[in-house]
Amino acid sequence: MNNLISMRDLSKQEIERFLDIAAKIESGELRPDISRKLAALLFFEPSTRTLFSFETAVKKIGGETFSMIGTSSSSVKKGESLHDTLKTISMYADLIVMRTTIEGAARYASEVVDIPIVNAGDGANQHPTQSLLDLYSMVKTQGTLNNLTLGLVGDLRYGRTVHSLVQALKDFNPKFYFASPAHLRMPSSIIHDLKEKNIQFEEIEEIDSIINELDIMYVTRIQRERFPSLEEYEKVKDSYVIDVNMLDNVKDNFKILHPLPRVNEITKAVDKTPYAYYFEQAKNGVYMRQAILSILLKAI
Ligand code: CP
């Protein structure tokens, strides 16, 4: 494996390898070493978790990083193309982690340079490193990825994390409830894939009637930055607010995941319940990203 661009590209065996390596890194059984390797972190869109957990992951296994955050201090500001920027950076770094607003930019990068590319989010398209840490969080909390019932809640149209996650689970016999406002539904291309693969799913608007069936509720932020107008965003921004009173009869193994950042779709009171797992989920990102770096840099 040379790049990590989309969950569509990964087989079940490859996903299981990422999970296995992450678990061994967390337990201390594996200690990969990427000393003398340099990772370029190119973030043309804001990030807290992905940027800092990659930086943490690189350093924990002995590597070093340099970063380009935004474009204001680079020669992109002078009109340099993405092509030339990537080509140049590939002359210095051993691997590029990149986040952009442009769907397909990571795939393009992988065709332009000869070093591994990790897609850290390309517009509303894909966020595969998030999906791998989401799967790792599911294995840790559920003991398995097989036969889970999941409710994906919020912005399913623009949410790249849910697009990746649905594809990541395709070989594990999931049952999905897709809960969203009517015009933030899962894209038709993903619905088409699910139908082709005979994966169970139901599109709904209310979650009260299904919450007690779920193993995992995966909540997402309504993404203001991807709406064509503020007015459109205002209409749907508070469509779902998860509060403790909704959790009275959930299953014992029930967990709430959220890729974060959260705005107000989960109340702070929920953080104190045994069902909240989103901050541990963010921590799991460090183990998974060490696994991703180790595999792509062939350090294990
Ligand atoms: N989950 C996630 O991608 O968070 P950041 O945008 O903070 O990186």
Structure description:
The structure is a single chain. The chain is 35% helix and 15% strand. It has 9 helices and 9 strands. The two termini are 13 Å apart. It has helices spanning 12-27, 49-60, 82-90, 105-112, 128-142, 160-168, 188-196, 230-236, 278-296, and strands at 38-43, 64-69, 95-100, 117-122, 149-153, 175-179, 200-204, 216-219, 255-257. It folds into 2 domains: 7-126 and 285-296, Rossmann fold; 128-282, Rossmann fold (3-Layer(aba) Sandwich), CATH 3.40.50.1370. The model has no long low-confidence stretch (mean pLDDT 96). The structure holds phosphoric acid mono(formamide)ester. Phosphoric acid mono(formamide)ester (CP) binds at residues 47-50, 121, 130, 259-261.
Question: Any key phrases for this structure?
Answer:
300 residues; alpha/beta; Rossmann fold; 2 domains; 5-stranded parallel beta sheet; 4-stranded parallel beta sheet; 35% helix; binds phosphoric acid mono(formamide)ester
The largest β sheet comes out as: 5 strands, parallel
When the domains are counted, the total is 2
Structural class: alpha/beta
Supply the CATH class of the largest domain: Alpha Beta
Shape: globular
**What is the typical, i.e. mean, pLDDT?**
96
Q: What topology, given as strand order, has the largest sheet?
A: 7-6-5-8-9
Radius of gyration: 19 Å
**Annotated CATH architecture of the largest domain:** 3-Layer(aba) Sandwich
What is the CATH topology descriptor of the largest domain?
A: Rossmann fold
Quick description:
The protein has 300 residues and is of the alpha/beta class. It has helices at 12-27, 49-60, 82-90, 105-112, 128-142, 160-168, 188-196, 230-236, 278-296; strands at 38-43, 64-69, 95-100, 117-122, 149-153, 175-179, 200-204, 216-219, 255-257.
